[in-house]
Design goal:
The protein is of the alpha+beta class. It contains seven helices and 15 strands. It comes from Gigaspora margarita.
């Protein structure tokens, strides 16, 4: 209606001053509406998604992959379920000398991986805890000399989500993320170093896992419009560490690591847009309706009877 009135011809039945005023008011309303619409569009474009939290319950979880950087050592493994304690050393790749590590010449890498075992809240369907014992095989380390005791770098990760760890990786992990990385790259990198620890010798550690999932909204014109949400679902976990006094079962025992899955509830964080084109159509329509009402109040609504407040009271 506003555009139609703007381009209508001058009627000889109304004063020229009224016609000029109508054109001025129509132009002002049209500019205001275009500016308001542009502000809404810019607000939609610059709006960041909010996080919607929810919980889901699972019956079992896969066991993470475990990576170790140790001195010259050997690793044993056992797990516990409803039927007892069982050996799982066959899933361990024993420490092998790391030729790529130029900083620490006594660095050895080891790992643990299995797709046959699961953490399960149903006692007979999986294991309840997992335990590693590390035994030192290097005579250069003296147990009574605390200045020479080695540290062990230990990492837990989702299978295929992180690269092998090194001392450089551990050093870089404590530095702030680079601003040049995109949001999703930073999140991916954070997951990779989320469960990375440097742990001391002659201690016993227990790690408790908490499962999480983040549904990340990727930039897409469909997400801005509001017809659909293109989400990338990324499952990961966090861990808490407890330390206990260490009891040596042999003279070469270095440390013990236990992993437990105390809860099977998954925390889900979902990106959601509050401002979209579809949700903002009401604001734009309301603004145009308000502008039309102002024009009708001032100049009337009918071409045959155009008498509004201006015609009735604005002229003698």
């Amino acid at each position: 209606m506003v555009l139609k009135k703007l381009f209508q011809k001058y009627r000889k039945t109304e004063p020229t001053e009224i016609f000029i005023l109508k054109q001025f008011v129509l132009t002002l309303l049209l500019v205001s509406l275009i500016g308001y619409t542009w502000l809404i569009i810019w607000d939609i474009y610059s709006d960041n998604p909010v996080v919607q939290n929810s919980l889901i319950e699972e019956n079992s979880f896969s066991i993470p992959e475990f990576l170790f950087i140790t001195p010259k050592a050997s690793i044993s493994c056992n797990f516990k379920n409803a039927n007892g304690i069982y050996d799982c050393t066959k899933y361990v790749i024993q420490p092998q000398f790391d030729h790529t590590d130029k900083i620490n010449i006594s660095s050895y890498k080891a790992s643990f991986f299995t797709n046959e075992l699961l953490f399960s809240k149903i006692p007979n369907n999986g294991l309840s805890s997992l335990e590693f014992m590390i035994y030192i095989n290097d005579s250069n380390f003296n147990a009574s000399d605390y200045s020479s005791l080695p540290y062990v770098v230990f990492q837990m990760k989702n299978t295929g989500t992180a690269s092998d760890i090194s001392y450089d990786d551990y050093t870089n992990s404590i530095q702030s993320q680079k601003d040049s990385l995109g949001l999703y790259s930073r999140f991916s990198r954070t997951i990779n170093i989320l469960n990375l620890y440097s742990i001391a010798s002659y201690s016993s550690y227990k790690f408790k896992l908490t499962r999480k999932r983040k549904d990340i909204m990727l930039p897409s014109w469909e997400n801005y419009i509001g017809f659909s949400s293109k989400l990338v679902k990324t499952s990961y976990f966090t861990s808490s560490m407890e330390t206990f006094p260490f009891q040596n079962d042999t003279a070469t025992s270095l440390l013990k690591i236990a992993i437990e899955q105390p809860t099977y509830t998954v925390q889900v964080e979902t990106d959601k847009r509050n401002k979209t084109v579809v949700s903002s159509l009401g604001l734009i329509g309301g603004a145009w309706g308000f502008a039309t009402s102002i024009y009708a109040l001032l100049f009337g609504t009918d071409s045959i009877k155009p008498w509004g407040l201006i015609q009735k009271y604005g002229t003698n």
